[in-house]
From TrEMBL:
Name of the protein in question: Probable periplasmic serine endoprotease DegP-like
PANTHER family, sorted: PERIPLASMIC SERINE ENDOPROTEASE DEGP-LIKE-RELATED, SERINE PROTEASE FAMILY S1C HTRA-RELATED
SMART domains, A to Z: PDZ
Recorded superkingdom: Bacteria
Naturally occurring in which organism (per UniProt): Croceibacterium soli
Residues at the active site: H100, D135, S210
Length: 486
């Protein structure tokens, strides 16, 4: 790293000052062109196409109360195709891509997968293995001659600002090369999941780039292009790649035919927000909030409760970039680990024996009530002194057994039910609506509007700008939300 001489533009500080910022030139080898590197790498990057049979419902009233009036409709299948990218990692033809490129997303079956190399040769591909949680898949193609291939690199060595290039098949335009830099090395998209941790890049990535490689300047694969953030559906310079340090071990297991096991606690979680932190009186905006605990799973057995904030798992801080799901998924099932949680303002250590993570399909079915009842008329009522309208922007009445039955709740459920919400209030923005039941506020069970008012008065006296409400909507699970006071 050589110092720039003369008087370049940039930060100016006093000479011989320990705080001086060194001004550096680009390291030797910063590309004037990507042509030579591209020529070496492009032969190992392939296009992937599939032929699928997807089930569709021919009943125009499917999903409505009128569906059965028309005989329920007969399911039909239609042929569909998908396009994506991949790269060869061995001379004998193992190909890495995304799982979503080569699966029918649960709606049917993939009948044929074709891999096309840059010289236009098409190869029928065998599906070796897939992993939905990491969105990775491995294919196998064959020929007598050795295939050109590329290697995984060490994505942990990537730095923000490093040059990268992406090669792939956007919109079916095979062999497309784009360049950019590493925009972030550990990026969580907020979507949750076991592997919500990506390399972010501004190298142009579009539909069809999925499964293609993200290369460093030494020609190593440091990421697998996976997704974009875009209001238009096209590239706006925010692309995400699965880091090689995550992908490579999974790929090796898929090739070896090994089962992939991940850790699991059995909780429904929410990232800590400014409003949640304010409602809980937490000085640091860190950790993740437990919305619900699945009965009988590891968290339940360890004593974790809804309303806890998980701060650490096995000594590792839970942050936006190192989520609870990511930490736990990378712990072997059966391992006993300490959990540091914040409960009612106190730090508590629990010990959990990590369970085994279910399949992605099973996870999607959890906390889902298919028997949610339809809306029914709600009575109007007196909400006390008017503080709820002034401070929360809601009107509420006590929850009676009759109203509880209308809402599909047990008759013994206690709380207050919202009858009106000011659309301009934070409560409306957070999802409170007519028929929502407020079960507790700041950890205190409530059964009348007056009790809710008392909690609000206490919060205001303590200088808290928000309250934490435990609520339940019709047909849904209990959730905790932080609502700002007015």
């Amino acid at each position: 790293m050589s110092l720039v001489t003369g008087n370049p533009a940039g930060a100016q500080v006093a000479q011989n000052d320990d705080s001086e910022i060194a001004r550096v030139a680009p390291r030797p080898g910063a590309p004037g062109s990507f042509a030579e590197l591209t020529a070496q790498l492009q032969p190992a990057v392939v296009n992937i196409s599939t032929r699928q049979r997807i089930q569709v419902n021919t009943n125009p009233f499917a999903g409505t109360p009128f569906a059965d009036l028309f005989g329920g409709g007969q399911p039909a299948t239609r042929e569909a195709q998908s396009l994506g990218s991949g790269f060869i990692i061995s001379a004998d033809g193992y190909v890495v891509t995304n799982n979503h490129v080569v699966t029918a997303d649960g709606r049917g079956r993939v009948e044929e997968i074709t891999v096309t190399t840059p010289d236009g040769t098409e190869y029928p591909a065998e599906l070796v293995g897939t992993d939905a949680a990491s969105d990775l898949a491995v294919l196998k193609i064959s020929r007598r001659e050795a295939f050109p291939f590329v290697h995984f690199g060490d994505s942990a060595e990537a730095r923000v600002g490093d040059w990268v290039i992406a090669i792939g098949n956007p919109f079916g335009l095979g062999g497309t090369v784009t360049a950019g830099i590493v925009s972030a090395v550990v990026r969580s998209t907020g979507m949750g999941g076991a592997y919500d941790r990506y390399i972010q890049t501004d190298a142009s990535i579009n539909r069809g780039n999925s499964g293609g490689p993200l290369f460093d300047m030494e020609g190593n694969v440091i990421g697998i292009n996976n997704a974009i953030f875009s209001p238009t559906g096209g590239s706006v310079g925010i692309g995400f790649a699965i880091p090689a340090e995550i992908a490579e071990p999974i790929v090796k297991k898929l090739i070896a035919g090994e089962e992939i096991q991940r850790g699991y606690l059995g909780v429904r979680i929410q990232q800590m927000t400014e409003d949640l932190a304010a409602a809980l009186g937490i000085p640091e905006n860190r950790g993740e909030f437990v919305q619900a605990v699945e009965p009988g799973e590891a968290a339940d057995k360890a004593g974790l409760r809804a309303g806890d904030v998980v701060l650490q798992v096995d000594g590792k801080d839970v942050t936006r970039d190192q989520t609870l799901s990511f930490i736990v998924a990378n712990i072997a099932p059966g391992t006993r680990v300490p959990l540091l949680v914040l409960r009612d303002g106190q730090r508590v250590t629990l010990n959990a024996t990590v369970g085994r993570r279910p399949s992605e399909d099973q996870l999607q079915q959890q906390f889902f009530d298919p028997n949610a009842e339809q809306d029914q008329p709600m009575p109007q009522g007196n909400t006390g002194s008017g503080m709820l309208e002034q401070s929360l922007g809601v009107r509420a009445i006590p929850l009676t057994p009759q109203i509880a039955r209308q809402l599909g709740l047990g008759e013994s459920t206690r709380g207050v039910v919202v009858t009106d919400v000011d659309p301009n209030a934070d409560a409306a923005q957070k999802g409170l609506q007519r028929g929502t039941v407020i079960l507790s506020a700041n950890g205190a069970a409530i059964s009348s509007p007056q009790e809710l008012e008392n909690v609000i008065r206490t919060a205001k006296a303590a200088g808290r700008p928000a309250v934490l409400l435990r609520v339940q909507a019709r047909g849904g699970p209990p959730l905790s939300i932080a609502v700002r006071l007015r």
